[in-house]
Amino acid sequence: MATARVMSVIGRKDSGKTTLVVALAQEFARRRLAVATIKHGHHPALADQKGKDTWRHYHEGRAARVLIESPGQRVLFERIEEESDPLTLARRFMPDADIILVEGFKSAPLPKIEVCRTKAGAPLYSPDQPDAARWVALVTDDAKLTAPIPVFRFNDTAWLQALGALLLDRALPLDP
């Protein structure tokens, strides 16, 4: 792909957003695309353990940035004053990706795929809302859910490949 493309996966708590992002990432990797993901968290997500070296660098040393490099992976911890939007993060950290899947950031001006499971509550999507045009599709376990946008069912065969094709077509190009 010439230009990275960005799509947001949104939904209510415990609706299956992470599961869908992982499945889409696997599908795009199978297609030999360079996949990157961005996860919006509501709590500090330091993947480090208290008392370990990098934790001490960051917390005790108050370093502005701590980078840990180990076989097969690199993690950067960075102090920030304000949260960034997903497009800024993608441009800064993921310039070589073909497709960037963003989990969360519901209010970001990105095309959206919503995961809506019956146990999690009603869909966030409504055709009457001002930003309804940003919704690309719904993925659901509700056999009765209908909408004026594509609705994919978890139990349909080949739904992931069809959703992947739609995502590539409707994802936002990440301009420099």
Structural write-up:
Helix content is 24%, strand content 26%. With 176 residues, the chain is α/β, with parallel strands linked by helices. The strands form 2 sheets. Strands 1, 2, 5, 6, 7, 8 and 9 form a 7-stranded mixed sheet that branches. A two-stranded antiparallel ribbon has the order 3-4. Strand 3 and strand 4 (73-78) form a beta hairpin. The longest helix has 14 residues, at 17-30. It is globular and about 55 Å long.
Order of helices and strands: EHEHEEHEEEEHE
**Low-confidence runs (pLDDT<50, min 5 residues)?**
none
Rounded to an integer, what's the Rg over CA atoms? 18 Å
Helix content: 10-25%
Number of strands: 9
Mean pLDDT: 90
Structural class: alpha/beta
Short structural description:
The chain has 176 residues and is an alpha/beta fold. Helices cover 24% and strands 26% of the residues.
Task: Provide the fold topology.
Blueprint: E1 5-11, H1 17-30, E2 35-39, H2 53-60, E3 65-70, E4 73-78, H3 86-93, E5 99-103, E6 112-116, E7 135-140, E8 151-153, H4 159-170, E9 172-173
Parallel strand pairs: 1-5, 1-6, 2-5, 6-7, 7-8
Antiparallel strand pairs: 1-9, 3-4
Helix pairs in contact: 1-4
Descriptive tags:
176 residues; alpha/beta; two-stranded antiparallel sheet; 24% helix; globular
